[in-house]
Specification:
Two copies of one chain form a homodimer. Chain A has 798 residues and is mostly helical. Chain A folds into three domains: 2-52 and 64-135 and 199-346, Clc chloride channel, CATH 1.10.3080.10; 368-444 and 474-617, Clc chloride channel, CATH 1.10.3080; 634-795, CBS-domain (Roll), CATH 3.10.580. Chain A contains 31 helices and eleven strands. In chain A, the strands form four sheets. Chain A has a three-stranded mixed sheet. In chain A, strand 10 and strand 11 form a beta hairpin. In chain A, helix 4 packs parallel to helix 12, helix 15 runs parallel beside helix 26 and helix 21 runs antiparallel to helix 23 (551-567). Chain A is elongated and about 105 Å long. Chains A and B meet through helix 3, helix 13, helix 14, helix 24 and helix 25 of A and helix 3, helix 13, helix 14, helix 24 and helix 25 of B.
């Protein structure tokens, strides 16, 4: 690591980094300006709905969505195919049209490339700045202020390898202010400055979030899951959120709070994807296509967070995405790779690796070790279940009491407690990522960590493990104590930290907790094997003096188990951790632990932390993983219920404008079925409230003679009207002629399946061809909540 | 490799292998016996369709499928949920029921574990036996007949490393029969014996396939794709197919034909999955659930074929599977891992690796090299497009002319030509997998291959590449000639071989062609860089004497490009090859080549070889990847067409049994819509032909008084009948009360989407609530063929 940085001047890196950032910023600005000129916000701008009626004049605004509404996937995809057909039919007309069609065909690749570049560059910048800020809590580099502790001392020739942390250029605050490096005074001074900086960073972070971009708080993954499932939250992935999230993420990480930057990196990458998609009308004007870019972006985000491109793609597939066609798989993979390579060329850790905690193990594992691995899995599952309950209970308290009104105070309190408690313990004082790295790393001859103070090393023998004395020295025992305290501290603080109004990821704290537990178990097993190497369990494979247990591997397995318990990820988690080690060998322990942890966690509640937060916030998210197991039929879920007023319907050709406006103003539904006549109740189509309103306004503006007693008709030809009646209003162009219908006898499990797979917004219920009622996505969510004995009103988005 | 085998006695391996095989055989037999006792074949046995009407007595046989029919995914999934609910509601009744529910919950894991074990064991056996048979063509090991050439000479202490292929124990046929090792006589003798064995193996293989299991031929992947999409081909995955395919695969590989064992291994794994699923009623009685097991099995198949568990899962996801819920992803991963570990513990290649061609490269690649890599991609795409056209043309000729009636003769002719042409050229004589290995491997000091005869090595300098003389010696030039000839030979023979009536995979021949082309390009670039190292292109990074080009990497990129051109796989292909090398570093060249090859190939035709074969055979496969881009509406596709007779419908309560039977006998459709009355045409439900027939037979057998003039009714209550009428027949229990409907105005792109995503078999078309017609999966396929200007009648399964 040392030599890597020395060989390649830091300035080269710095300049590469700056260049990439400038490019990214320019692009982001271009993208968002374009976005603003197109109407801005989250949903696409005015789109003509050609698919509805090609012969009619398109009405501007029809086919767009309001904020906090659900998109209709089927219709969006149709719109995209229509656009594609148009471009294809035109492309032979002229060279310009051909170029346009080429640009259109390539825009998918372009947008994921840009997203990958931007995510990689931002991740690199965040890594470097967070490191520097983190070291600022301890001291400064006098020779070059912009160097962090490690870089500062690399340039010094006066230090030996063993004392590589100490060099004259690096001054702690005590040295700088008091002029002395040792003694209780300087300890207190360092303690004070540590807390001071932590509080400053935390205050800055929460203030920026509160003032400029409230959406920048949290990990963002629950909201991204909801957005990808087809919900619209304007501004959640906008440029302000991106900017503030990037800045405050760095501050929050540096403040020492028990949070990570991995989850928020996914949000940052998705912001990049959203902003770049405004450069391409194919994506900016189609909510479904835009979500393909966001899926790729979230893969890129995980790719840079963990240096695991394949894991990132699987994360996007397994955890966040809703609609994931194969084309997206391939593009996600590409985006993830581009992001990973940009990050590697920035080289933020100076070790030519993508992540801080890349490890290589050299000893195989033995069948007996599956037992402690499964124990770690049980621990992970229990921790996950406990954490989800405790954190949700705390967040609910924050939401429901007046306590939630003082976010700044809360952040500062938590940051203060964290800093004050963390400082005395070296394992909590250091950066959490570095702690994980130390715990993952196996003891080798060059390791100076307290965790590696075995007798063989104390005796000066360099040849560990061949040094044959793996008995723990006092250093290991005191490290064990400190680790246990750190474990308790992390567990408590993480519960109170996740959900604060600062960017906060959960991956790193969870992994840290698991890694600490794993390392403790690993050392325990190691000592057991050392002192009882003639036990039948160890006799076979643990020869005296041989290095048969790898405590670092236990730490890694524990980290995976805890992360699995919290998020309930499976394949993607195993692949992410597999990409950290690179050995197929260790997949089996990982799988065993992750499976156990998922099963144990699921026994206490099937939701992962992200689903729990989605439900807490009441987003309309229909989970694809959850099975619908009840036997209800469609007629029991549809509205109107038994004692409700009848469904508000429109007839196709015998209503006046006044009647129509009356119906619209008296009801709050988002759409109305259109039927042949009140008597037959046979279904013709479905019209959206928003579209009707826009069409009426448009007609009033453009057509003369539209009055309150004008007839409104949805048929192809105008009905025969009395001679004195005013000009009729034709609304066929906004009528959806192919509404989805199910019969009243359809089991709800099929209805739920249709909603999930096709991404519907509503579905009409018929009996023997007559319209009976309507089922919307929210009806389904409400019904599912009822079935699970929850208060259905508590779950809706507010 | 040598030492690995020496350390661990071959007998250990052999015994492990035998044990696993015995276990597998016992399980397979158990499984298939169970299958036979359950009615055997492919579709599940008698299932009561509780979901239709829980109050009715279930009729045996209702809800099953005929051979060559399409399953209804929605209904199968409902059936499974019903079964699950039943078990769940019962499980608290007694300890026995609780055990049963536990068994049910675990059966998914059990069946994938068994499948993984069996696939890994069979792959190991196939590898070992194929190797041995392949060497039998050259000679025998006198000291131990069951050793192949390599193992035979490892036990000999008389050979040096350089001459490790020659040892006194191993006798070529010429030595054994003529008693002389050198000279034209012995060459002719060896040539003759080589051809003789090749022909014998080929004859045996094709005869076994022809007599015992005609389904065992080909690669099986097109059929597995079709089966996974919901088609039933009884016996395609049965025990006979498994047994014969395993035996003939070994023979076909050993016969030296230009084919591989990787594709058929997927078929073998799927057979194992199918057979084991009969042990578990959850899977044997539900066609949709069984396909989850098959998806996992195909992942295990690729996992053992290439030693790439993650690649296998992605292959299953991207290439073969149709319905792939996340639960299946996790189980597929597990099956793939189990299979890989069984294969590794069998250790068929004696190198502790899963595949023969595992490689590690040590030099990085340079940006300029992307140019030859993309060239290789273009070559791969062109080869893929050419191969697909030529092979399909040849297969169509075989199908349509009488030439196809002599499969044995054809196989023997091709085998004879292959053997006769292959023998003189060392690169075609050797096993194709070994050829690929040799081409992938970089030249090192220990490589004795002709391809590595650089001047530095001729001078006796061991330190290549530091030997600084990378100029090619005559050996390399003659190797280049031989490779070029081998390339032409492989290209021609592969076209005629794929589609023969023996098990034949396409992965290895395609990879071999790409690897040869890649290696030739690689050596050319290397020599260019050597002789022109002061060109501006090479100056920067190619210092004199440095080893800046890795020809082995070119071979690997070429192999990926050619495989990509033929199969049009993307992510899974890159991941599979990535798992061969293990370095993230080389993903970018691979992606560049695979993307280019896909684009170039797609320009000539969007179908991969498997889709082309599916279409050639007329399987009803609705490809999820192909976009439906036309603007037709549902009413243009539905039957009846304009001039057709009206749709055969049943009325809900005014038909006699005679009328019903009349309608059934006069039409050939598989199901009939049930309407309220002929006048209103309002839809009530849908009844399947098979179910009606079974229900009538059942009623005749069990209920008295059912006569030809009995009234048939589908309503809840019997209609009021005249006093003298015979006992009516109630058929409500077989009526599907929730048929899928679309309106006549629905764009076909939405209809196709619904069919794909929900796995429908048919869909009814209505207009304003009245039934108009029906669209089946075959109607859609026929319409798509018409739109693509193909003869719609040629594509249907025959």
């Amino acid at each position: 690591m040392r030599s890597a940085w020395r060989n390649t001047s830091s300035f080269t890196h710095f300049s590469v980094c700056v260049c990439v950032c400038v490019c990214v910023c320019v692009c982001v600005c271009l993208g968002s300006n374009y976005a603003m000129s197109n109407g801005g916000g989250g949903a696409g701008a005015s789109i003509s709905t050609h698919l509805l009626d090609l012969l009619e004049e398109p009405i501007p605004g029809v086919g767009t969505y309001d904020d906090f509404h659900t998109i209709d996937w089927v219709r969006e995809k149709c719109k995209d195919r229509e656009r594609h057909r148009k471009i294809n039919s035109k492309k032979k007309e002229s060279a310009w049209e051909f170029t346009k069609s080429l640009y259109d065909a390539w825009s998918g690749w372009l947008v994921v490339t840009l997203t990958g570049l931007a995510s990689g560059a931002l991740a690199g910048v965040i890594d470097i700045v967070a490191d520097w800020l983190n070291d600022l809590k301890e001291g400064v580099c006098l020779s070059a202020m912009w160097f962090n502790h490690e870089q500062c001392c690399w340039d010094s020739n006066e230090t030996t390898f063993a004392e590589r942390d100490k060099c004259p250029q690096w001054k702690t605050w005590a040295e700088l202010i008091l002029g002395q490096a040792e003694g209780p005074g300087s300890y207190i001074m360092n303690y004070f400055m540590f807390t001071f900086w932590a509080l400053s960073f935390a205050f800055l972070a929460v203030s920026l979030v509160k003032v400029f971009a409230p959406y920048a708080c949290g990990s963002g993954i629950p909201e991204i899951k909801t957005i990808l499932s087809g919900f619209i939250i304007r501004g959640y992935l906008g440029k302000w959120t991106l900017m503030i999230k990037t800045i405050t993420l760095v501050l929050a990480v540096a403040s020492g709070l028990s949070l990570g930057k991995e989850g928020p990196l996914v949000h940052v990458a998705c912001c990049c994807g959203n902003i770049f998609s405004y450069l391409f009308p194919k994506y900016s004007k189609n909510e479904a296509k835009k979500r393909e870019v966001l899926s790729a972006a979230s893969a890129a985000g995980v790719s840079v967070a963990f240096g695991a491109p394949i894991g990132g793609v699987l994360f996007s597939l397994e955890e966040v995405s809703y609609y994931f066609p194969l084309k997206t798989l391939w593009r996600s993979f590409f985006a993830a790779l581009v992001a990973a390579f940009v990050l590697r060329s920035i080289n933020p850790f100076g070790n030519s690796r993508l992540v801080l905690f890349y490890v290589e193990y050299h000893t195989p594992w033995y069948l007996f070790e599956l037992f402690p691995f499964i124990l770690l899995g049980v621990f992970g599952g229990l921790w996950g279940a406990f954490f989800i309950r405790a954190n949700i209970a705390w967040c609910r308290r924050r939401k429901s009491t007046r306590f939630g009104k003082y976010p700044v105070l809360e952040v500062i309190t938590v940051a203060a407690i964290t800093a004050i408690v963390a400082f005395p313990n070296p394992y909590t004082r250091q950066n959490t990522s570095e702690l994980i790295k130390e715990l993952f790393t196996d003891c080798g001859p060059l390791e100076s960590s307290q965790l590696c103070q075995y007798r063989s090393q104390m005796n000066g023998s360099q040849a560990y493990p061949a040094g044959s004395d793996a008995a723990a020295a006092p250093g290991v025992y005191s490290a064990m104590w400190q680790l246990s305290l750190a474990l308790v501290f992390k567990i408590i603080m993480t519960i109170f930290t996740f959900g604060l109004k600062v960017p906060s990821g959960l991956f790193i704290p969870s992994m840290a907790i698991g890694a600490i537990a794993g390392r403790i178990v690993g050392i325990a097993v190691e000592q057991l094997a050392y002192y009882h190497h003639d036990w039948f369990l160890f006799r076979e494979w643990c020869e005296v003096g041989a290095d048969c247990i790898t405590p670092g591997l236990y730490a890694m397995v524990g980290a995976a188990a805890c992360l699995g318990g919290v998020t309930r990820m499976t394949v993607s988690l195993v692949v992410i951790v597999f990409e950290l080690t690179g050995g197929l060998e260790y997949i089996v322990p990982l799988m065993a632990a992750v499976m156990t942890s998922k099963w144990v966690g699921d026994a206490f509640g099937r939701e992962g932390i992200y689903e729990a937060h989605i439900r807490l916030n009441g987003y309309p998210f229909l989970d694809a993983k959850e099975e619908f197991t009840h036997t209800t039929l469609a007629r029991e879920v549809m509205r109107p219920r038994r004692n409700d007023p009848p469904l508000a319907v429109l007839t196709q050709d015998d209503m006046t404008l006044a009647e129509l406006q009356n119906i619209i103003s008296q009801t709050s539904c988002n759409g109305f079925p259109v039927i042949v006549s009140k008597e037959s109740q046979r279904l013709v189509g479905f019209a959206l409230r928003r579209d009707i309103t826009i069409a009426i306004e448009n007609a009033r503006r453009k057509q003369e003679g539209i009055m309150l007693n004008s007839w409104v008709y949805f048929t192809q030809h105008a009905p025969t009207l009395p001679a004195d009646s005013p000009r009729p209003l034709k609304l066929r162009s906004i009528l959806d002629m192919s509404p989805f219908t199910v019969t009243d006898h359809t089991p709800m499990e099929i209805v739920v399946d249709i909603f999930r797979k096709l991404g519907l917004r509503q579905c009409l219920v018929t009996h023997n061809g007559r319209l009976l009622g309507i089922i919307t996505k929210k009806d389904i969510l409400r019904h599912m909540a009822q079935m699970a004995n929850q208060d259905p009103e508590s779950i809706m988005f507010n």
